[in-house]
Amino acid sequence: LFRNHFPRNICAGRRMLTHIDNRKLLFVVIPLFVFFQFLLVVEMGKGDETVNQTSLAEIQVLKNRVDRLRKQLAHCKNSVENDCEKDFNELLKRCEGCEKLDDEDNVQLSEDGNYFLKEGDIEPMKILYGIQGTGNGHLSRARAMVKHLKKHPDLEIDYLFSGRKRDKFFGMEDFGEFEIRAGLVWTVENGEVQYVKSITYNIDNFIQFVYDVITLDVSKYDVILCDFEPTVAWAGWLRSVPVISFGHQQSFRFDIPREGGDFVGNVVLNSIAPGNYIGVHYFHWDNERILPPIIHINNDGISTDKKKVLVYLPFEEYTELPSLFSNFPDYEFYIYHPNHEESYDNGNIHIRTQSLDGFTNDLFTASSVIGNAGFELTSECIYLGKKLLVKPLHSQMEQMSNAMALVELGLATRQDVLTSANIEEWLISEEDLPGVPYPDVAEKFVHWILNSDWDSEEEFERLWEDLWSGIYF
User: What average pLDDT score do residues 119-145 get?
Assistant: First the structure.
């Protein structure tokens, strides 16, 4: 059979092998076999050691997630809500293979560096990120967060915005596809909050808001990130999905410099976005739940023009701004406003429409900035070492408190009313601000979120100490 099916030279080779002494062949084969087996064992040992050392931390993260799922599962099982059966089945599906995590040997590291379970499966972490769209400060903070969330391609993230219509958003490429809800907003005219109009406007919105909260399906998410966006916060609270409610507004739950405010404003501030509260502010004032500002730009040492002034007063009457600044021909004023329909130059007045790239470039190259006392822009200014003049919104506790804090820390000049006289006094004043060296808060905050151990005071204290170290005023 061998001769009939194989070429003649192979048959000849077979006849040659029959003349070799089998005992001599063993003296060659056995040592080679033992040597290669030794190399294989050594390499496998190195690989096992690497997997074990690397996988322990990852196992703990997975276990933290599983503990969360089990708590949600137990709550849902005992709930009397009519729609809880759907949530229960969703949680069961996501928790498939959870019990397999108790066996650490069941967690393996694949060749592409991803972890997997030999038996059972746990779906990728799912996050719903809700962002308040009123103003641009929340969007700036979200861009800093997204930059680091995208470094984890195994995450599944959905974005939801409220506070303005879809066509009023710009520079949204970082977020991909996103959803819009009505939410709840304040009405501002001529730099002052209009409470009566805000209530009237939100009466119409409130029915839609309640409907959005009830119908928003959040059962598939591990955690909800909320930057003062009420729809996702209340939907998560009603369904017992963990909500991390963070942002500048949440810092007012703690003992910080505060100016103004009333009963209605405090009630709204404290109830609009329930969750696990984490504030961000210029300084912590010994509050261990307040982190430094989350900033989306880098201080790359770009040269500035000493005569260039960036003006951003979105809540002021935009038609009155050019005449206010045209009295200072020695300075170039770049004025941004959401109501500008076109960009043009008129002497030392440069009118600009909303543009993320254009605004960022002018912020870098200007030596001075005039704006309201919104938190995000003022944070960027003190980070970059800009000379800063703030005009807080009247009757808006947050901005009035921000202005108070900035003056207390020696970081800005405050004027409640802008006049030619006080603008001139500020322009000619000499201020040398080196810039506050805030770290990349978003990077470490995202890492803390992904660890899933949100109830651990020890873990958050470690994050707090790491971020505030080296920051002094």
Answer: 85
